[in-house]
Request: fold
Amino acid sequence: MRRVLLTSISLLAFAATAAVAADLPRSMPAKAPAYVPVGYNWTGFYLGINGGYAWGQSDWSFFGGDPKPRGGLVGGTIGYNWQALGSPWVFGLEGDIQWADINGNFANLACPLGCQIKTDWFGTARGRVGYAWDRVMVYATGGAAFGDVKASINGIGTTSDTNIGWTVGAGLEGAIAQNWTAKIEYLYVDLGKTDCGVLVCAPAGGALFGGPIGSMDFTMHVVRAGVNYRF
Reply:
């Protein structure tokens, strides 16, 4: 009898414990930490390609001509950006080389056979200062420009110089993938002056001047678009 009584009490105690445990609130499942997106950072080296169009002006001092060279261009870019963590400011250095077909012509009484000025290539070496809104950046840029300037009189000859000048401009660049960006850019380029030698640009008897008898400058506006790959 005692054994039956003890067994009954044990079963009742176990049932009561199970009922109480069933009524206890269950612990909430652990939540994953909230996702905090990482801002885009522009720091790093990059390589790129670009293409565009240029138009400009050239003043021929001796001949009174004012050709307006224009034409297309395509080229490559190399550069480096640096952006401090948490700062919207981006600082960089960029260089490019362009293969171009930019030329202008005129004819007048001083140059009845026709005169031409052109550049087959030019490049720039510039600093950049940008302000970024995460994956979009506006920037100003400026520095040195250099390129080949050729002046010619049809049927007489051509003079060619590699000139060094300057450039300023601005642009808009945006990240289109993790390592790829696309940009559109405007540059004002001044390639300086080219002397017109007496054997090329002088009329008959011009050799009596004994040296350059005139000069022509070369300035242009450049609009181009490109893509860069950042390492």
Notes: Residues 4-16, 204-211 have pLDDT under 50 and may be disordered.
